[in-house]
Write a structure and sequence with these properties.
Layout: E1 3-8, H1 13-23, E2 31-38, E3 40-47, E4 64-70, E5 85-86, E6 92-100, H2 103-110, H3 124-131, H4 137-147, E7 150-158, E8 164-169, E9 174-178, E10 181-185, E11 197-200, E12 205-209, E13 213-217, E14 223-224, E15 229-230, H5 246-252, H6 254-262, H7 266-278, E16 282-286, H8 288-305, E17 310-313, E18 329-334, H9 340-351, E19 355-360, H10 366-370, E20 373-376, H11 389-405, H12 409-426, H13 429-442, E21 447-452, H14 456-471, E22 474-479, E23 496-500, H15 507-518, E24 523-528, E25 537-540, H16 548-566
Parallel strand pairs: 16-17, 16-18, 18-19, 19-20, 21-22, 21-23, 23-24, 24-25
Antiparallel strand pairs: 1-4, 1-10, 2-3, 2-4, 5-6, 6-7, 7-8, 8-12, 9-10, 9-11, 11-15, 12-13, 13-14
Helix pairs in contact: 3-4, 6-11, 6-12, 7-11, 8-11, 8-14, 11-12, 12-16, 13-16, 14-16
The structure holds 2-deoxy-2-amino glucitol-6-phosphate.
2-deoxy-2-amino glucitol-6-phosphate binds next to helix 8 and helix 14.
């Protein structure tokens, strides 16, 4: 939610910040702005996407700049509300990601001496810093953050100083180093084409950046020695390459991301499987698509390992804290590793002594660092707001873990390596065209229903998320058996109903449930290893056994993408959504 970048160095900071914001656009795309320093601070702000801005080369040069791409929380989408926000004298400029929970009280107090120009919570920060600037830049920033409550990341520039100051409390910030050049951003792809050398800020830490880097613990003021880490992402992984959109590039990358995800160390998988076997109560938690992966995990563990694992969507997890003990295990799943609801669930669990295992894609993310053990998904950067390659990789790891928990790691690995190669075969232009033809047929529908049973029931819910967020068609996923308990009332002539079939014990029942919809006039789309008379349109998938959610999801992702294209939606930037949801 919101992307931040700052740069100090001998290159043109303005261009670097504009370029970095374009790479961070997936975090927010309502409006953007930069502040550059050339003696005084100059602001450039626009409503809309920075990718639509072509004037980067004409902007004034500088050696220090900060920038922000916004996902609006407090205050509408206007130029005034876009960041950076400044102090009354225009000398302090601030960009911010997160929420200042006590901004109303602070604003009321500050309004007697300060003139506010926006409706944002952020604007209290430059005014608070201005209040104490006579103490020096660093002290004034420290004083200001001691007054604000919430989860946030802040980056501050001062016209009278050659330093940038950044603070992290709940929202990500990473420093990039390339000799004398220094970068700071919400995510690594913002500066990946300049450096792979990074330092992570932890919560309650402040960094003062000029030609040197000074890190402080905000709780006791002590200096911190940070470890420099070389990350193994490649800059080209964070670019679209030959594809028109990130999402289709990421869908196609599933040709090898599943195999990469499965390539975990046996020793680690077995160790965690043993922990699951020992635990008194294991909870899965995650949000949105990651939450649906957790639900698929519930089924897989029950089926393969004979284990009941509870799933609770992260925003509701705190309500379950009464059941937690130091023998409980939490398995948290998150692409970004920064989702605020997930991090809150983790905090609540940790306070009760719960051990945290996570599946996370972003190295160095808050979740990875808060976990006792983190499985890296290894899918490379996922830029499109709609998760695709990370989802199938997460399902693969969870499936592997279930097999390991049942003492059948080798069998699980074999199954998933086969599945990875089946997915590789599916992702060919002919297959895409077959799915595209279906998209043509149903693109004007107002509703799409998806049915599944067993492992494919939560997958039906994930399918609904993909179709909704990409194409803005209302979609809903149901357990096949539930249709007759209510949803059948929605079926009219030609209502598109997608039925997800796996080659398992639920096969016949899902066909019967689909028949109930067909009898009421539904247009039946079968995603199944075998054709069936009741399908009006058949999309063949390989028989992947217990990995059927992986192969069944592939045509859904392609369908959702083509529905978006045909309906004129931007498939990379889903309306009203953000890639990394760092607010509660
Ligand atoms: C995915 O397509 C969605 N945009 C969204 O539901 C996402 O899965 C959710 O916000 C969780 O994100 P995370 O995996 O980074 O925690």
């Amino acid at each position: 939610m919101c992307g931040i970048i700052g740069y100090i160095g001998n290159k043109n900071a303005t261009n670097i910040v504009v370029e970095g914001l374009k790479r961070l656009e997936y975090r927010g795309y309502d409006s953007w702005g930069i502040a550059l320093k050339n003696g005084e601070i100059k602001l450039i702000k626009e409503v809309g996407k920075i990718s639509k801005f072509s004037g980067g080369q004409d902007l004034e040069k500088s050696n220090m700049a900060i920038g922000h791409t916004r996902w609006a929380t407090h205050g509408g989408v206007t130029k005034e509300n876009s960041h950076p926000h400044t102090s009354c004298d225009g000398k302090i400029a601030v960009v911010h990601n997160g929420i200042i929970e006590n901004f109303k009280e602070l604003k009321k107090e500050l309004e007697t001496n300060h003139k506010f120009k926006s409706e944002t919570d952020t604007e209290v920060i430059p005014h608070l810093i201005e209040e104490n600037i006579n103490l020096g830049f660093e002290e004034a920033v420290k004083k200001a953050v001691s007054r604000i409550k919430g989860r946030y990341a802040i980056l501050v520039m001062n016209a009278d100083s050659n330093k940038l100051i950044a603070i992290r409390r709940g929202s990500p910030l990473i420093v990039g180093i390339n000799n004398d050049e220094k970068f700071i951003a919400s995510d690594i792809p913002a500066f990946l084409n300049h450096t792979k050398e990074v330092m992570y800020l932890d919560d309650n830490e402040m960094v003062v950046i000029d030609c040197e880097l000074k890190f402080f613990n905000l709780k006791d003021g002590s200096k911190i020695n940070k470890r420099r880490i070389t990350i193994d992402w490649d800059a080209s992984q964070a670019e679209k390459g030959d594809h028109p959109y990130f999402v289709i590039k990421e869908i196609m990358e599933q040709k090898d991301t599943i195999a990469r995800a499965v390539n975990q160390k046996d020793k680690e998988i077995i160790k965690i499987a043993n922990e699951i076997n020992k635990a008194y109560g294991t909870f899965f938690t995650g949000c949105g698509t990651a939450g649906k992966v957790c639900r698929i995990g519930e089924y897989i563990f029950s089926k393969v390992a004979n284990k009941h694992i509870n799933f609770t969507v992260s925003s509701e997890f705190p309500n379950y804290q009464h059941f937690l003990t130091n023998k409980t295990l939490m398995i948290a799943i998150s692409q970004s590793g920064e989702t605020a609801d997930v991090m809150e669930a983790v905090e609540v669990a940790k306070k009760k002594g719960v051990k945290i295992i996570s599946l996370v894609n972003v190295m160095g993310s808050s979740l990875q660092r808060a976990s006792d053990h983190a499985f890296m998904i290894n899918a490379g950067p996922e830029k499109a707001v709609a998760s695709t390659k990370v989802t199938t990789a997460q399902i693969a790891i969870i499936t592997l873990l279930a097999y390991a928990t049942a003492g059948k790691l080798k069998e699980g690995k074999q199954l998933l390596m086969n599945t990875a190669s089946q997915v590789n075969d599916m992702l060919n232009p002919r297959y895409e065209q077959h799915v595209m033809k279906l998209a043509e047929k149903i693109k004007d529908s107002n509703n799409i229903y998806i049915l599944g049973r067993s492992l494919n029931y939560p997958l039906a819910q994930e399918a609904a998320i993909k179709i909704m967020e990409l194409s803005y068609i209302h979609a809903q996923g149901f357990a096949g058996g539930e249709m007759k308990h209510g949803p059948l009332a929605l079926i009219e002539k030609n209502s598109p109903v997608i039925t997800l079939v796996g080659n398992d014990e639920s096969k016949e029942e899902i066909i019967s449930n689909t028949m109930e919809a067909k009898s009421r006039g539904a247009y039946i789309i079968g995603i199944s290893p075998e054709n069936n008379d009741i399908f009006n349109y058949w999309i063949k998938v390989p028989d992947a056994g217990n990995a059927s959610p992986i192969v069944n999801l592939i045509p859904i992702q392609i369908l959702a993408y083509h529905l978006a294209i045909l309906r004129g939606c931007d498939p990379d930037y889903c309306r009203n959504l953000s890639k990394s949801v760092t607010v509660k």
